[in-house]
UniProtKB/TrEMBL annotation, chains A, B:
Species name: Pseudomonas ekonensis
InterPro entries assigned to the protein according to its UniProt record, in alphabetical order: Aminotransferase_I/II_large, Class-I_PLP-dep_aminotransf
Domain of life from the UniProt record: Bacteria
Cofactor: pyridoxal 5'-phosphate
Stated name of the protein: PLP-dependent aminotransferase family protein
Domain Aminotransferase class I/classII large: 50-375
Length: 388, 388
């Protein structure tokens, strides 16, 4: 069997195994990043034109592209509809970006930690992954400058708003500083913002892409966290120099994004009904965040440190006494608790032990306390074993 | 700007330009491969469960996978649901196969001519494209054996039923012979069957994948030609050795295929209503094929040779006096007629002049005669100019 060289870099299915195990109904899962079922809006399909069953344009539906461009401009990202490409979920943006930029050995720059599925696809294409550490308000600027002075990464991949996994939101000052550095060194920005709308304190900041004066950029978002992930509708907006290449890559990947999901997204985006839904969603998740924070304080305050997330879907715990959290999985699953170990969110997992990513949006609050309690017991037991 | 090496192989947008030009309402287009709008079925969404808005499995919806496996077994392709992967249109199968097999310089084997978009994505990944010529009943077996004796292609890509562009349907004997050769040389088969159900004489033959005894295989199909292309729902079925890799590649490409399209597809596949729709569709396209054949006989009988297609969506014309049909495009479009030049369907376009691919399913019959007449005039004029 002669597969491509890239297949040797296809990652083990650890994450798939966790998520599969978390499907068992008795499991209390903090592992995934699923929206709460209760908050999936009822959608109406009765007015959808039958002509949407026909093939569509690779760029996406014109009306949706106009609406997405208008929304982006309102956020402070100057752009026109001609720069908007509708994609099959923002995961596809990462696939297209990998194809556009990455040969074997191509250097790219990532936050540490970073989004696991991004890391996997960039590595699949053979990227050499450099990292810059995240602080509570964004990247360590000194280290970012140092990386840019020493390397010529093909792009930097950032998730500046409620990052997955760390929940970090960049400060205004760091957004400005990062944009200035990227312009200074002429580095392309890929800015991924699936969680922007899930803000609990009302904060909103201009995208970094909107602050660039010279560098090329791709900004990507999705309706998966705010409307319905099952639609598989996301989008990217790109600087005009990149757009034609991304369009051709999109066409060769899947011709175009499904039009029924695009139509449904257009019924919501920019509407008052969508704003009302987002308000409800934020309030719902804020309450779940608060309940989660209380449970963590009761069971984890002596075991870990964390920042209270101001948006998004995750708590990121740092154990006071680090251990490889992957070794906790079997015990946790045996106790019907699932979580996501932190190590795989780093290009060098073994050098970054001691973090746990806990999703707070999905679990039923009635089972939350018991789940957190059991997880704390698993950690305590492992640390006692290690000390013994 | 440092793009990946692969971007240098992104093809020019000739095809996009033709299809864009063909959008003008006054243009009589034989260029695309669009189903007839009149035959898009009315679909009902009112019973779709709201839970389908949630994230789904990368494999696809379990009930749909079961149904697709049952249909494939009925065709003579032994398989279980665990071998079925739902994809975002069968174009995505080509993307996943390219990722699985192709490094720069990897040899693969294709029919000549072959499906344009397959050629493009295989070349994008850097494939070295070997070809075997098609005859009226399938590939030239002598040349196929010769290629397999001299080379070790990573896979062979075949469209055995109503091929795009040539409309060739493999005979029973050639299906058997091809399967035997692939087993003899241990070459993986990728079998693409978007047009299988669009048969005008009722003929149906067992897939080649179902005849293999040893070789690995990927069989791929879609609902785009029989139900609604806008759903972007296709599928692949793979031998068990390939499936886990394809699943991981699917997950990294777009997590999973949109669930609303999958749900709609499941409402049709295997149902009596679907059979009735297919019967209508075949009859409708057969009539269009007949009208097209009449018009061709009136205007092209002295200019070109062709076989009458027994299924699919295309006539494939071979000019009696070959010329580069790409040079006809400007004149045709100036006369408001669009067609697809044959050259880009070959890995070596310049060495394969003189074919035209004409779609017969989409154009309104009232405009057909005038369109064919104008196209014949364009060809005649070019041949006169060449002779002069």
């Amino acid at each position: 069997m002669a597969f491509s060289e890239r297949v040797s870099r296809l990652k083990s299915s650890l994450i798939r195994e966790i998520l599969a195990a978390a499907q068992r109904p008795q499991v209390m899962s903090f592992a995934g990043g699923l929206p709460a079922e209760a908050m999936l809006p009822n959608v109406d399909w009765s007015d959808m034109p039958v002509t949407l069953g026909q093939y569509g344009m690779s760029e996406g539906e014109p009306a949706l592209r106009e609406m997405l461009a208008a929304e982006a401009r309102a956020l402070g990202l100057p752009c026109s509809a001609s720069q908007v490409l509708v994609v099959s979920g923002s995961q596809q943006t990462l696939d297209l970006a990998a194809k556009l930029y990455i040969d074997k050995g191509t250097q790219i720059l990532l936050e540490a930690p970073t989004y696991l599925a991004a890391l996997q696809i960039f590595q699949l294409f053979g990227a050499d992954c450099l990292t810059v550490p995240l602080e509570a308000d964004g990247p360590d600027l000194g280290q970012l400058r140092q990386r840019l002075e020493r390397h010529r990464p093909a792009f930097i991949y950032l998730i500046p708003t409620f990052q997955n996994p760390s929940a970090v939101r960049y400060s205004e000052a760091k957004r400005e500083a990062v944009a200035a550095l990227l312009d200074e060194f002429g580095v392309t920005l890929i800015e991924d913002e699936p969680y922007r709308e899930l803000t609990f304190d009302g904060g909103s900041a201009r995208p970094i892409a909107g602050r660039l004066k010279k560098s090329s950029w791709i900004y990507t978002g999705t309706v998966s966290k705010t409307l319905l992930p099952g639609l598989r509708v996301g989008y990217l907006i790109a600087s005009p120099d990149l757009f034609p290449h991304l369009l051709k890559l999109k066409q060769s990947a899947d011709l175009h994004t499904n039009r029924i999901g695009q139509w449904q997204a257009l019924q919501w985006i920019g509407s008052e009904r969508y704003q009302a839904h987002l308000t409800q969603l934020r309030s719902f998740y804020r309450q779940r965040r608060d309940a989660f924070q209380s449970a963590l304080e009761r069971h984890f305050s002596d075991l870990a440190d964390w920042n209270v997330p101001q948006g998004g879907l995750f708590f990121w715990l740092t154990l006071k006494r680090p251990l490889d959290t992957r070794t906790l999985l079997d015990a946790a699953l045996a106790d019907d608790v699932a979580f996501m170990p932190g190590e795989p969110f780093f290009p060098e997992p073994d050098r970054n032990p001691g973090h746990l990513r806990l999703n707070f949006s999905h679990i039923d609050p009635d089972r939350l306390e018991e789940g957190i309690r059991r997880l704390a017991v698993v950690v305590r037991r492992a640390q006692a074993d290690k000390a013994a």
